[in-house]
From TrEMBL, chain A:
It is a multi-pass membrane protein. Its main location: membrane. Keywords: Cell membrane, Membrane, Transmembrane, Transmembrane helix, Transport. The chain crosses the membrane at residues 12-38, 72-97, 117-138, 158-181, 202-223, 263-283. Belongs to the binding-protein-dependent transport system permease family. The keyword 4Fe-4S does not apply. This is Sugar ABC transporter permease. Pfam families: BPD_transp_1 (PF00528). It is found in: Cell membrane.
UniProtKB/TrEMBL annotation, chain B:
SUPFAM superfamilies: MetI-like. It is found in: Cell membrane. It comes from Cohnella silvisoli. InterPro entries: MetI-like, MetI-like_sf. This is Carbohydrate ABC transporter permease. The chain crosses the membrane at residues 20-41, 84-103, 115-136, 148-171, 192-217, 250-271.
Amino acid sequence: MQWTKKRKQTITLLAFVFPALLFYAVFMLAPAFGGIGYSLTDWNGLNPTYHWVGFANYTEALTDDPYFIKSIWFTLRFVAFMVVLQNALALLLAVFVESRGRSKVWFRTIFFMPNMISMIIGGFMWLFIFTKVLSYIAEHSGFGFLDQSWIGDPDFSFYAIIIVSLWGGVGFLMVIYIAAIQGVPQPLKEAAAIDGANTFQTFRNITLPMIYPALTIGIFLTLNSSFKAFDAVYALTGGGPGRATQVIALNIFEEAFSFNSRYGYASAKAMILFLIVFLITIVQLRFMKNREVEA
Amino acid sequence: MSNPGTRAGERQLGRRVGSAFVFVILLIGAIFTLFPIYMGLLNSLKTEGNMLSNILSFPSRLEFGNYADAFEKTDFMRSLGNTLTVAAVGLAGIILFASMAGYKMSRTPGRVSGFLFGLFVLSMLIPFHSIMITLVKIAKELTVQGSTIGLGLMYIGLGVPMAIFLYHGFVKSIPRDLDEAAVVDGCGEIRLFFVVIFPLLLPVTATIAILNLLWMWNDFLFPLLMLTDSDSYTLLLSTNMLFGEYNNDWSAILASLVMAMLPVIVLYIVLQKYILNGIADGAIKG
């Protein structure tokens, strides 16, 4: 009796889960595990047969592919800038917006707006700003320094990519930080004020430790999205000039779908990307979870 | 110096200066945020010549020709229809299948249930770029590549994990007594779910609908890989194509950019309270 009831329960469970599992298995699990398999072969788009090559693709990607290695360094630099700037700006805006009265809603609405827009659209609009508007402003005003080769010169296009990515991403984190700040118990802040703490001290010693869990999430989300950055770079520079601003995702995309259809080799690069993101986010979560305080 | 009145006065002055400083910073931030959108909108209403000679000024005469031009070149109605088809198929599947799975896994104790849930959560760390190559191959074999409905079906597979995660958590807040009472009343499993449970999931369903709609509407790389024929292009793909073909005709491009983002901006302004809450909920629980 007990056994049959349990069995019936399991069957109902499977029936409810089956449709989701089917789509998930076919379009997510199969390509994920298939990708691991193909990364060990010389599969390409031109030849229907392929052979096992072991870890040759991985060795080639990490030792013999200067563009890929360069794209890893470029991405790491981009991620480092984004983690610091995006979280600092989002936190600053969250604190400032929360301190406003009636204008709070307006600022929140405006700062979040770019998140509604695809980074492809946003990237093209910024391309217009960088290539047309800034040079116009420089020509017709004193701000001569604005007239740079923002897109054509890799030194500047790195910052162009950072600016556009911040524009698109800060508002999202700001909303998360605002929610966290609103969760800080008011009596704690009042107690600090009575003890003579100024605004900055209250923030440093009360608010910041209390919203530490949100900081963990914010940095996790930034790491995750910056390592996968694609749209903004694609729209702004297309990875150029040459391949100077190529991020890892763009390098994989070109390897597989633009240049030579080396699917097996590109799969190995895709696995390397996965491993980098996985390891760094695990380390980050471990490190930051350990430092969270109890309220 | 030791007069308490002056000190209080000083502090109040300091607070006011601080408040003004904060306001100025926020204002600069807001201008920076809106600047590209404003410039895009402004210059999409000028002729090319008018734009180049005076890029910052308000158009002397509103020029809607660019919109007519972009409307035609991007085949706007068809692109919009394609985007809506993809999003509708994906959204319907994600909500229906994820709510069923999330509810039942949340209600069933035991190892099977835990294993299945873990299996879904596992994938939330896998970047899309790591599966895309093999996914293209699978899509070709299943002949879902190249069709908008096929793309919508694939979005179901990619979208259910996060939706299941959110449903799984939300179901815990619905009392079990409800299920039991319904079963005592002779209600079957399927009716129980659709008639009693599903309506109660509405708040989290709204969050999931918003998050997924935005994702599918703004996603670029996945459609780029899957929709190879320009007849099935989504709005973003048509805009991208227009950019590639006429990359110096900025006024037409800007008009197409404005048209592609207008639907989401309108949606945002109408539903912003729900969207902002949904984002915060989704991110913190996800």
